[in-house]
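INTERNAL AUDIT FORM
Audit reference: QA-55
Scope: verify that the stored structure record matches its stored sequence.
Auditor: D.O.
Record contents follow.
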Amino acid sequence: MIARRYLSFVALALLLFTASPVWAAGAQYASGDTGPVVEQIQASLKEAGYFGGQVDGKFSVLTRQAVLKFQKDSGLKSDGIVEEKTYKALTGKNLPLKTIDKMQPAAGGSADKILNTALAYKGVKYVFGGATPTGFDCSGFVMYVFDKHGIKLPRTADKQYEVGRLIRNKSELKPGDLVFFETYEKGASHVGIYQGNGNFVHASTSHGVTVSGLSENYYASRYLGARRVL
């Protein structure tokens, strides 16, 4: 009986482990790594005058050299590896954890990937006319994130409001939908990416890339509609 219960426990533990993302403690980024976090590292290095290469999300030799120089100038351990202290000194933010995704792809995976990309830029400052990780405006952010997944969108919010399928009711929203607001001028003048549970990711003038709720007074009173492009 005891042996049977032990085997059941082991089977359950294995099931949970393989069905959930594994979070890697003590995350660090180094040569060979790729992705949005590396891209943000490059953008911050470029803004600080250390990196002259292309901001492409690939931790290249040039990226490592820039990290080494930044670490040396900042009095940090100079090894070319971006760990918590280096990332904090460079960006002023905590280093995102790496994940090893053990889950099988599910329906709606495109929306999940787009939202993961969008959230990787959380905290990037707002820059009017910005469309890179050094600074985004609302439509530049949306265009940039979708472009990372091979989906080309117009540059401005009003033009983005003309593409895809119109979603008339908030109750019909799905993750990945574009949500639009009428803010400083008539028509669509602000846009974000619907995350689910009444929240959306966007580049806010006051908070940069952040997550807000559709039910917040400011956005609820200015909500215009949504478009589905996935």
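Auditor finding: record pair retrieved intact. Residues 109-228 form a domain with the endopeptidase fold (from Nostoc punctiforme) fold (CATH 3.90.1720.10).
Action required: none
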